Amino acid sequence: MRGQLEMLGILIQIALRNLFASPLKTAIVGGIICFGSAGVVVGASLVDSINQGMAKSIIGSAAGHLQVFNSESKDDLALFGGMMGDPDLKPMEDFSKVKKTLLSVPNVKQVVPQGVAEAMASSGNQLDFALERLRDAVRKRQAGEGLADAEYEALKDHVRQMIALLQKDAQSVGTMVEEKAIDPQAQAELARAATDEFWASFEKDPLDSLEFLENKIAPQSVDGDFLWVRYIGTDLDAHLKAFDRIQLVEGEMIPKGQRGIVFPKLYYEEWIKLKTAMRLDKLKEAREVNHKRIATDEELQRFVKENTEQVREIVIQLDSLKRATLVARLQKALGSTEADVGKLLSQALQTDDANFDERYQLFYEQVAPLVKIYQVRPGDTITIKAFTKSGYVKSINVKLYGIFTFKGLEKAGFAGLMSLLDLMSFRDLYGYMNADQIAEIKKLKEAAGARAVNRERAEDELFGGGAQVVGETQPGEFDEFASMGPVKVANELARVYSPEEIEQGVAINAAVLLEDPTRSAETAKAIEAAAQRDGLKLKVLDWQKAAGMVGQLISIVSLVIVSLMLIIFLVALIIINNAMVMATLQRVKEIGTLRAIGAQRRFVLMMVTFETVVIGLFFGIVGAGVGAAIVSALSKWGIPAGSQEAQFIFSGPRLHPWLSGTNLVIALAVVLGVSILSAIYPSVLATRVTPLEAMLSDD
Q: Which range has the worst mean pLDDT, 372-381, 491-500, 594-603?
């Protein structure tokens, strides 16, 4: 034991001596090891920070720790979309049974029904909005609320201007398509609405005239956008209790048990907002957050160009009073005598790095108050349409209650565009009838005397001589409304559904929250066993697999970072090995002398290996310290995300990596491993040196 300690002391002395005796070798090898060690610390910290940040964001926003769905589905679940589009999933017919089974499994804390789908919603067009304002003005005048004549006439004039513009657009289209493609009746109705006679008779029956304009003229306007809405249908009350990443930023959440929808902030700002305002916001964010310049960035220059050229969406909203007000404001702000509001807007929106802040403030203080910035606002009711599972179009009315964000995924395109819809509305759009609809159909059948007909005897039952006569018709006028009798129409938007009604129906998938997430694999197997026991066909995926493209992206990012670290150490291994070989060849005399005075091959092998390990350990510690300092600085300042994809990967606008002791241990272990591997060949060479070679080297 004492001899081994003495030998270890000798090896340490030799290693330390050679550390300073060969500065070139030490500098090359030490620098590479230091760089590699720092790279491992930083890289491991980035991988851990990205993985854990995204895991918290995805699990806490919609995915849960596990996801279950029907095992008979053609595809696997992809909550945020798959590589080939949305998967084809078979629904779970009765969620209440699934929930009961899942909650019987130990470690399962909560179960939330879900279903991801898409729909279209018409935002309406500017003529619709103008007619809505005019109708409101008519009602106020009829109620004697004393609306000013000038304001009332301005509203009428605004509608007339928009009709004239619509007529001009129709004429332009007519020159580009075949005449037979244009509806003559629509042309005639548009021509009638543009005449002085129509507006002269407007006051005789304004409500009748407005009905004509709303039903016959407004649908001809094509300036309204169709909104694409991607949503998760869910039990909102259970969803909010289960997921902690949802933050309300405007309006309110859907009341418990009621129908409604809430939009994510990213979707609201990029799809619902006036395009000019949206582009100005993007310019502001790019300049202030990402430190880009309009003068050098092509995308920002495109935003500016589109703003100056696409002022029609603002001009079309202005009645004569608002137009005059805006002209006066812009003339004063720009020092211009231009009287055309469109040209003034183009001048005001011609922004550069020098005037952007001033023009941005000008827009929001002087222009925005005169126009509709958002197509819909919290509190509005919208109509959304979707294709049901059977292929027909279903439309429902839902109230937009509020605007929210998924914390950490605010700018992520995958999740930042995902709205939340109540489960009852989701089922309607999906094509499943609720209990009220089933009861209504049953009553209609009973009232009509409908009965089941045997398939084999259908012809005899329906047309045979023995068919039962339900009733005989008499000639006369048919009053469809009188025949229906009084119809009670339920206000679906105001109705409050019980938890039982919400749970006893279709769900496409379900999110499972666990008491102990570290036991997710064990719990997944227990869920499959419980489902088999209760006769349910369920498949279980962890959150990363269930996330679809999002989960794949996490794996790809981690793989890229790990691959870069492996490449760095492969290069380091080669360079360190070459440096150690050269150093060993330069020490032939020294090694031969040691052999001549009795040093064994094992001692020489240990000496060269130990020297490399000492260098690796010393500079590995230095590199780990440098890496820790870099991570600490990055944690303080953050790494800015230059795109929506980067913001999603970073789980926010900036990534703040954190350091763990595990990262330091991994760095030192990898460095020592590389050092030992790189010392193997030089050590073998050293053991082959003989005293004779040492003497020949003197010659």
A: 594-603
**Within 13 Å and on the Cβ side, how many CA atoms surround 471?**
6
Count CB-CB contacts under 10 A for residue 124: 20
Tokens of 62: 């919609």
> 456-488: per-residue pLDDT in tens?
665 565 555 555 555 554 444 434 334 434 333
C-alpha closest to that of 403 among 282, 539, 264? 264
What mean pLDDT do residues 281-288 have?
A: 92
pTM over the 0.90 mark? no
Strand partners, 660: none
Q: Which residues pair with 233 in a beta bridge?
A: 115, 421
> Do 584 and 686 form a contact (C-beta atoms < 8 A)?
yes
Q: Please report the sign of the dihedral spanned by the C-alpha atoms of residue 637, residue 638, residue 641, residue 644.
A: negative
- CA 106 from chain centre, in angstroms, equals 32
Q: What is the pLDDT confidence band of residue 41, given thresholds at 50, 70 and 90?
A: confident
pLDDT for the residue 107: 95
Count of residues making up the chain? 699
Handedness of CA 46, 48, 54, 56 (dihedral sign): negative
Q: Tell me the C-alpha distance between 92 and 628, whole Å.
A: 50
41: Cβ contacts below 8 Å, ≥ 6 apart: 623, 624, 627, 628, 630, 631, 659, 663, 664, 667
Residues 404 and 246 sit within 8 Å (Cβ to Cβ): yes
Q: Judging by beta carbons within 10 Å of its beta carbon (0-12, 13-18, 19+), is residue 501 exposed, middle or buried? A: middle
Predicted confidence (pLDDT) per residue in 315-371, tens digit: 888 888 888 999 999 999 999 999 999 999 999 999 999 999 999 999 999 999 999
Do 510 and 114 touch, CB atoms closer than 8 A? yes
Q: Which one has a higher pLDDT value, 104 or 551?
A: 104
- Residue 29 burial (CB count, 10 A): 27
Mean pLDDT, range 245-255, rounded to an integer? 91
Q: What is the DSSP string of 269-315?
A: IIIIB-HHHHHHHHHHHHHHTS---TTT-HHHHHHHHHHHH--HHHH
Among candidates 236, 319, 215, 314, which has minimal Cα distance to 274? 314
Comparing CA positions, the residue from 62, 64, 52 lying closest to residue 107 is: 64
The DSSP symbol for 317 reads T
CB atoms within 10 A of CB 93: 12
Q: Which residues pair with 262 in a beta bridge?
A: 402, 420
SS3 content of the chain, % helix, strand, coil (to 5): 60, 10, 30
Q: Among all chains, which residue has been given the structure tokens 């469109």? A: 342
**Cα(133)–Cα(610) distance, rounded to whole angstroms?**
86
**CA dist., res. 17 & res. 106, Å (int):** 62
Q: List, in order, residues 6 or more apart from 662 with CB less than 8 Å away.
A: 44
pLDDT band at residue 139, thresholds of 50, 70 and 90? confident
Residue 98 backbone phi and psi in degrees, to 5 = -65, -45
CA distance 510 to 110: 10
Question: Where would I find the beta strands (DSSP E) of 352-507?
Answer: 381-387, 393-406, 418-422
Euclidean distance between CA atoms 323 and 111, whole angstroms: 55
